[in-house]
Amino acid sequence: MNIAVFASGRGSNFQAILNAIHQGTLPATVTLCLSNNAGAGAFEIARLHNIPAVHLSAKQFPNETAYIEAMRELLHRQSVQLIALAGYLKKVPPAIVHSYRNRILNIHPALLPSFGGAGMYGHRVHEAVLAAGVKVSGATVHLVDEEYDRGPIVLQRTVEVEQNDTPDTLAAKVLKIEHEIYPEALKAFAEGRVTIHERIAWIHSHS
Questions:
Q1: Cβ-count burial of 83 within 10 angstroms (0-12 exposed, 13-18 middle, 19+ buried)?
Q2: Are strands 2-6 and 82-85 parallel, antiparallel or unpaired?
């Protein structure tokens, strides 16, 4: 399975995906790293692994249509079968979501449907979790649709929220499980073990 990784930042989930591929636990190839941020750390990771790295931003184009066509052409050229958003802070254009329906995944640093939606990313999520006083947080891998953080949930794992947790300590705990469950979810897709019906996704165990 050919994967495109979209990332805006340092790319730690991108690295986790590559680690799983190199360890032989994820039967996939990353054929593209795309970022809206020319200075993304993810590009360094891509270059180290000889993965095509492309800076693509709507600001580079005269209109939305030209931007979407450039993205579509790039994905087609790299034979991308599945898109993994790994800290990508731009909304994927609806036309691309439509073309890759049920083939775009995102990882979110909380237990959706709680603490999701527009503007809920990075430390803002962990601050909201702590402010709400909940005892459990975690990470969610979900399919991407036209709304922020609303697509069918594929995989979740929890962490305990302790009394002395800060946004930083909670972020570190959640990131650790993000690095575990994202490759697991991608593996299930690569092996054809995911069934999607309406707004629910099931992962089947090996038969």
A1: buried
A2: parallel
Which residues fall within 8 angstroms of residue 182, CB to CB, at 6 or more apart?
13, 16, 17, 84, 86, 105, 107, 141
**Candidate CATH numbers 3.40.50.620, 3.10.590.10, 3.40.605.10, 3.40.50.170; the one for domain 107-207:** 3.40.50.170
Cα(194)–Cα(165) distance, integer angstroms: 35
Residue pLDDT, tens place only, 146-182: 888 899 999 999 999 999 999 999 999 999 999 999 9
In terms of pTM, does the model score above 0.85? yes
The mean pLDDT of 129-133, rounded to a whole number, is: 97
Distance between CA atoms of 110 and 148, rounded to whole angstroms?
A: 13
Catalytic residues: 108
Distance in angstroms (rounded) separating the CA atoms of residues 102 and 83: 10
| DSSP codes of every residue in 104-128 | EEEEESS-TTTT-STT--THHHHHH
List, for residues 25-67, the tens digit of each pLDDT value.
Answer: 999 999 999 999 999 999 999 999 999 999 999 999 999 999 9
Q: How far apart are CA 74 and CA 80, in angstroms?
A: 9
52, 31 in Cβ contact below 8 A?
Answer: yes
Q: Enumerate the domain spans of the chain.
A: 1-100, 107-207
